[in-house]
Specification:
The complex is a heterodimer of chains A (245) and B (266). By secondary structure, chain A is α/β, with parallel strands linked by helices. Helix content of chain A is 40%, strand content 15%. In chain A, the strands form two sheets. In chain A, strands 4-5-6-1-7-8 form a six-stranded mixed sheet, with helices on both faces. In chain A, strands 2-3 form a two-stranded antiparallel sheet. Classes of the chains: A alpha/beta (245), B mainly alpha (266).
Amino acid sequence: MALDGVSLRLEAGKCLAVVGESGSGKSTLARAIVGLTKPDSGQIRYRSEDLGSASAKRRRDLRRHIQMVFQDPYGSINRRLTVRSVVAEPLENYYPNWSSTELDARVADLLSKVRMPTDAVTRKASALSGGQLQRVGIARALALDPQLIVADEPVSALDASVQASILNLLSELKVQYAMSFLFITHDLAVAQHVADEIAVIYKGKIVERGEARSVVRNPQDPYTQRLINAIPGFRSRPSRPIPGD
Amino acid sequence: MASAILGLMIFAAVFGPTLVPDAGRITLRDRLIEPVGFGGTWKHPLGTDGLGRDILAGIVAGARVSLAVGFGAAIVAALIGVPLGLIAGYRGGRIDRAIGWLVDFQLAFPALLTVLMIAAYVQAGIVPLILTIGVVSWILFARFARAFALSARESDYVAAAQLAGSSTFKILRRHLLPNMLSPFLLLMLLQVSGAVLGEAGLSFLGLGITRPETSWGLMIADGREFLRTAWWVVVLPGAALSITILALHEISRTSGGAIGILESEA
């Protein structure tokens, strides 16, 4: 899906939710920010440094600060590996001199941060539930002490009962480690729950952006209004037709 | 059933020469003795060939050669084809085109010609046969590994490994290789059967195993002149060959389902 003239700025330590329906280009945005997709034009800047024009070595140094939590924990974790090897993989790459005891200690620390029992290290990823796998995915994203975590629909593949606990975990981690979050979701209610700011994306363009509460309470764009009216038990004002719909 | 047959063949290949010695002993007095049930005696249960060599001993000794060449050549082919295919599929671009060119070259160049050229320079034997058949049959593994890597590189677990800073080599070894293991093993069995047939064909043509060693293809070749008078000299080693090939295919076919079930449980 094409993105068109999207310009976003994310303050350190804040959580920005990008809200849009499927096909609106939000996953493309997430993949471009973490560097999995190259934008045809435009720049991704991290601390005012252009990631596209940085040298490979510099990019590798910068990339470690931007990590991702994927939508589908089953697809984003190699289920033949143990939890330890999944979480230790980024550490092995960036700290090749660490001994296996140091790795073990760091992995145990990361697992406790995401509230996984420490005895989970030796378990195969294939033996975990979706919610547990997503916790492992979050631990892996935290391993390199990132400044920014891009979470692409991190709960939409999970059971409703697990969703809230993962959202709460992400909110707590954000506060605790003063990380910035880019939270990609189709669900305005989820966005309001976790985000300081909300940007609404529609057909590859940002149609509205503002402080989370005011976007939900007082949406300006007709598309935002329609999204809000789609939340059960939530109604802003009568919706107007959307231009170009 | 198929596993039992293959097991028996492997058993024969490993222990046969100690159980049935003297595979190559020529006893002209005992030429062309019929198998048991066709006028022969238990001294030579499957009869003897035109030089009085025991057919059963020959089949047992041939199993060792056939299976060694079969598995050995398939392993050589996999060692060449899988890494090339994985890199081609994962990296794409120029590397993919270069490896694709190698594949086309190998396809266009007749395998038999390669074999003849190698045979012209190297003394025939098991090791040259393994290398030759392996080198001419790596393409299937390369194509299979490339197709697998092409789809896997779009997957989230590979994306996650890239974000983790893993090198291409590490991603291929740690993430792609283990995940293609079960279809790979099935392909391996098919390649083994292809290599067993290849060995029989080459030995039949006189380009493979030579006396005093023996192989099924060589026994069939030696028996050609007795086809009308002493059928067992050709038919019995031929049957051993066919049954082994059928068993390999059958295992490959049925374990496709079994591995699928294992995967979904994992």
